[in-house]
Sequence to fold (357 residues):
Amino acid sequence: MKQIKIAVIGVGALGQHHARILAGMPDVELVGVADTNREAGMRVAHNCGTQWFSEYRDVLDNVDAVSVAVPTVAHLAVAGDCLARGISAHVEKPLALDATEGSLLVKQAEKTGAILQVGHIERFNPAMQSARPHIGQPKYIRGERLSPFSFRSTDIGVTLDLMIHDIDLVLDLAASPIVSVEAFGLNILGNNEDVVQARLRFENGCVADLTANRVSMNVSRSMQVWSNTGFVGIDFGARQVTTCAPSDALLYGTSPVERAQQPGADIEKLKTDVFEHFIRVENPTVTPHDALTAELSSFVDCIRTQQKPLVDGQTGLLALKAAEQILESVAAHAWDGNSQGAIGPAPFFAAPRKLAG
Fold:
C-alpha cells in the first residue's frame, strides 16, 4: 500500500500530538513538521524522526496532505495556501476565524478537489460513538464544557475555543435549522469572552442549552440528551454513557403516580421502583480508543478512498456560522435591560484595572 505523505504545520500544544500519531502510522510518511519556533520545531522533529521546516511552504512540494494546527487567525492563510495547491488538509477546529474565511476555505477545497476535514474531535470520542445509537430525535439537549484557563487559543474566545465542540454535536443531533439564539457572555481574564451561556432553538422544536467556561476551577465535558426514546447522559472526559428509558411496566401498565394514589400504597417502595421497575437504567459499553488517533486515521482513509470526511468543510462551516450567531447575541446582550447600560460581553469585574507604571 502506497504511503500517504503528510506534514504537520504548527507543532504547539496540540500539533505535537498530531506529529507523534502520524509518525507512528504504518501507511503514513511524516515528511516534516513546520513551525516558526525553532526550539519546538526541532524537538518535535527529532522525537518523530523527521525534518523541521521554519517555513511551511518549503515542505508543500513533497506532500499529499497536511495537518494544520496553527492559531485560528492563520487558518485561512495556511490552509488556504495548501488547498489552493490541491493538497488535502486536516484543519483544527474551528475551521476559521469567521464564516467568511471558512467559506473561502470550503470553496478552495471544492475548486481543487482536495479533502478538507475539520478537527471536531468529539465526533470520534468513544463515549459519543457509544451513545449515538441510543439517541432518537432530540427534544432537549444540555451541554457543559468547563476547564481552567490554559493560556492557549487566546486569539479567540471560549465560543470558538470550547463551545464549538458542543455546537457541532448539537447541530448533528438536532439535524434541523436554527430559528433563534439567545446568549450572554463574560470577559474575565482577557479581551475575548471567557464564559458563555447560550440557548439554541431549532425548527423541529428541539432546544439546546450550552455552557462554556474556560476560567473554571472544575473540569467538565458532558452532554445530556432527552429524545423520544429516553434520556442519554454522556461524560466525554470519563468516557461513560448512561441511558434511561421507560420500561414496559411504565409504558403499558399502571403508572407509579396512579399506584401512589391507591389506598395503602407503599410510597417508599415506589420510590425505589422508579429506577428499578419503571425506568430502565443502562450503561452501554464504551470501547476505549484514542479519539485523535481515530480522527487522523479517518483523514488518511478519506485521502486514500476520496470519501467525504465525517466532519467536512461544509459541516465545520455550519458550526462556525452557529457560533457567529451566538457571538452576535453575546455582543447585543443588555446587562441592565436597556441600551443605556452595559452591552455585550461585559467585564465580570466592575472596577477598572489599574494601568502599570
The mean pLDDT is 93. The longest strand covers residues 138-146.
